[in-house]
Amino acid sequence: MAAGRRGRTRRRELRDGGGETPTRAVDYTNLVTPFPVMKAFSDDRIEAIHEAALDLLETQGMKILLPEARQFFRQAGARIDEDSQMVRIGRDIIAAALATAPRRVTMRAGAPTRDVVLELGRLVFQPGGGTPHATDRLRGRRPGLGRDFREAVQLTEHFDVFHMFSALLEPQDIDLTLRHYFMIEAQLTLSDKVPFVYARGRPQVLDSFEMVRDFRGLSDDDFRAEPWSSTVINTNSPRTIDIPMAQGLIDFAQHGQLSIITPFTLMGAMAPITVAGAMVLSHAEALAAIALAQLARPGAPVVYGTFTSNVDMKSGSPAFGTPEQFTASLAAGQLARHIGLPLRNASGSAANIADAQGANETQFALWGNLLAGTTIVIHAAGWLEGGLTLSYEKLVTDTEVLQMVAELCTATPAGDADLARDALAEVDPGGHFFAAAHTMARYRTQFYTPLVGDWTNHGTWEENGALTATERATGIWEGILAANRHPDLDPARVAALHAFIAKRTAEGGAPPES
After folding, report:
1. CA-CA distance, 405 to 410, in Å (whole number)?
2. Is the pTM of this model over 0.85?
3. What is d(CA 358, CA 361) in angstroms, rounded to the nearest whole number?
4. Residue 23 pLDDT grade (very low, low, confident, very high; cuts 50, 70, 90)
5. What does the pLDDT look like over 333-342, one tens digit per residue?
6. C-alpha to C-alpha distance for 1 and 192, rounded to whole angstroms
7. Domain 68-408 sits in which CATH superfamily?
């Protein structure tokens, strides 16, 4: 065959796929961050922030509303004022807590391949969480429903780049006394990833633990020995731990489950207006909560976290994806390394729809997380309106970015074959590499394949309907939900789970405590 015809044939095979289905192996689990960390402040200023936080706890203290929690601190030697519920926590208590808090936590999932390691240097993504509303292009913005929660679970399950569940959204058509049954059942039966459990009072937490324990086929001792679920503990800034959060810290610690401790400190509102001042408050609150967990059970799994951004000083509305949030994330990374614990940080957006603003804010905040050395990035996809809405289309378009970040976590090979000496010898000056043997051997699997991106030229794009990325994202989530895939489940465990829920529902469920 003439060289020209052979080249045309190879190019046609490249264009048409050669009659074979491309198979590019990817692994977005167990990511190790390749990014060098940045610093917001010098090391001596980080030490100053740490010392200021210790001073704050020791001299002014935390308001802790749960008497049981105050008793733990009293037994450790903290100074307690029962009338004001203020707890002044000495440096020795914090030092002891940091000495027992584990530097590495392995979360156990329904399948060993879904286990998640949490430590500095690892990278874990969670979708947006805790929103009261859902939105998509087909059904519009609406209060979150049970249907929406189950769909959000299925979307989270589908994408390997989401490693653990967040709270996703609130199914507001489910009574609050029964909602935890619904949410746990959906996570356990639609996915084998690590489930999220709300800390909404001891009765609901213990119900949730029982469901996870039995569905995973564990004994009490096995369940307590390793974390099989996680929660987020938000302090009430400034300097308050309320009853459900304190109960959650104690219950999760005593049952060996993970508390992701996250002060929500908005600069200029419930935190000082400066980044450094806000980080003093956030750090102090996180240390106090870590101490309570360790007092309840030394060695209890915890993650040090922060969610520090600023407000719009004209309206008081929260802002996300700002330079201030980026800087606060870097500072949080420095503080996490200072105390040696895995770090939880957040992305997110204040945009009202899945538009350029939403994409810009989410990605800017994400890069602040990545360069901070964050272990867990929550609200990494789908989060709008500062946490009021979970967008299906935005979840898909944000996932594209997360998958590209995950690609960067894999080393790029540079072995002898990758140096392409044969291809360089084969192609003459002024030629091209489309038909080179080196290209033909690799073109199906060499590059990342876009999830939602469209690389066609303008004419082809118009012929295909001239769809925007947001419109293409609609088709992607529709296809995932239509496929309705589920993990392989033990029918006996599913039946037992449903029987437990039916029994507890008939008994009136479990009221949240506040």
Report:
1. 9
2. yes
3. 5
4. confident
5. 999 999 999 9
6. 53
7. Trimethylamine methyltransferase-like (3.20.20.480)
